[in-house]
Amino acid sequence: MKATKLLHNLGQSLWLDNITRDLLNSGTLKRYIDELSVTGLTSNPTIFDHAIKNSRAYDAAIQARLAQGRTGEPLFFELALEDITRAADLFRPIFDQTKGLDGWVSLEVSPVLAYDAASTLAAAKELRARAARPNVFIKIPGTKEGLPAIEEAIFAGIPVNVTLLFSREQYLAAADAFLRGIERRIAAGLKPDVGSVASVFVSRWDGAVAGKVPPALNNQLGIAMANRAYGAYRELLGSPRWHRAYNAGAWPQRLLWASTGTKDPKASDVLYVKALAAPFTVNTMPEATLLALADHGELGSIMSVDGGDCEGVLSRFSEAGVNLDALAAQLQVEGAKAFVKSWDELLAVIASKSNALRQAA
Q1: Cβ(175)–Cβ(151) under 8 Å?
Q2: What residues are labeled active site?
Q3: 264 alpha carbon, distance to own chain's centre
Q4: Fewest CB atoms within 10 Å of the CB: 21, 88, 127, 331?
Q5: How far is CA 359 from CA 230, 352, 354, in A?
Q6: Residue 357 — very low, low, confident or very high, per pLDDT cuts 50/70/90?
Q7: Distance between CA 243 and CA 262 in Å, rounded?
Q8: Please, which pLDDT band fits residue 360 given cuts at 50, 70 and 90?
Q9: Average pLDDT rounded to a whole number, residues 130-151
């Protein structure tokens, strides 16, 4: 049995961290659903940048929109919504079968809004309405400024994928924003079944300390931080606060592992996937990692509900001079900047393609 199926049977959802028009047109995404137990999909500005830059599959759609006077960001979101809604329709049977637990696809608001709560909320409402699919998450960064937008979006009934979380504390802040939105819906007599996931990024921790810690600690920090967040997640799911919301009809905000592709060429290509096997979580992985996992026939141990030995591992990083809290804040800021950089590059690619297509017409 493929390891992808083993993870699915364990109760972990496997999502693809990629979307391209070629994946949709070729039937590859449908094959991943049927053969590799893929039950959802995530996207971000970097993914769309690579998709549009490296394919001619978007050229006809760009030409059509140029003829309608669309340019820049409005043109991009029309392209993105076409891909996202097609993917959402492929996953809709899973969404219906699981009564909204699974089968989601994610589209991010413009990353330049990461520190503007009001504009983020307005963009989230607009994208949700334009997608017009029940199984579309709007991705909102879990920055300090993004937290109010997350609460307001949940209160407004907008499903949210909280992105750019790195630490237990950042995860708990996002979970609190989600629960505040749910509790406000309950108090207002509104249905509290609003979907959400909280995306904790893993591999970037190890990239940040590579070459700065003893070799014995290589590729351990991201997994240890994920275990710490998982312990907090399981504790929250057992709390009276969550049980009150659940009893009123709320859906859980599941923990999602992001950035799970292995960056170190000396490490296993499924290092993070095997280490983060846990029921009632999501792992969104790059296409190469998904295919590598499919070639493996076994998994390692399941994550411990109390975080296992993560505190011992993290103490060794502290002893090696790593300030975990400061690094978590740094990674979140750098992550937001990286998405803005990809966003700028994406709009530049669209502008370049638009000019080339105009000249060729």
Answers
A1: no
A2: 139
A3: 21
A4: 21
A5: 53, 11, 9
A6: confident
A7: 36
A8: confident
A9: 96
Q: What integer is the mean pLDDT of 86-97?
A: 98
DSSP H stretches of helix in 164-309: 168-187, 203-209, 221-237, 240-247, 271-275, 287-294
pLDDT > 90? residue 299: no
Q: Would you state the structure tokens that stand for residue 157, as one six-digit string?
A: 């009934």
Q: Give a three-class secondary structure readout of the chain.
A: CCHHHHHHHHCCEEEECCCCHHHHHCCHHHHHHHHCCEEEECCCHHHHHHHHHCCCCCHHHHHHHHHCCCCHHHHHHHHHHHHHHHHHHHHHHHHHHCCCCCCCEEEECCHHHCCCHHHHHHHHHHHHHHHCCCCEEEEEECCCCHHHHHHHHHHCCCCEEEEEECCHHHHHHHHHHHHHHHHHHHHCCCCCCCCEEEEEECHHHHHHHCCCCCHHHCCCHHHHHHHHHHHHHHHHHCCHHHHHHHHCCCCCEEEEEECCCCCCCCCCCCHHHHHCCCCCEEEEECHHHHHHHHCCCCCCCCCCCCCCCHHHHHHHHHHCCCCHHHHHHHHHHHHHHHHHHHHHHHHHHHHHHHHHHHHHC
In which band, very low, low, confident or very high, does the pLDDT at 329 lie, cut at 50, 70 and 90? very high
**pLDDT (tens digit per residue) in 178-225:** 999 999 999 999 999 999 999 999 999 999 999 999 999 999 999 999
Angle at 192 between CA 336 and CA 187, to 5 degrees: 105
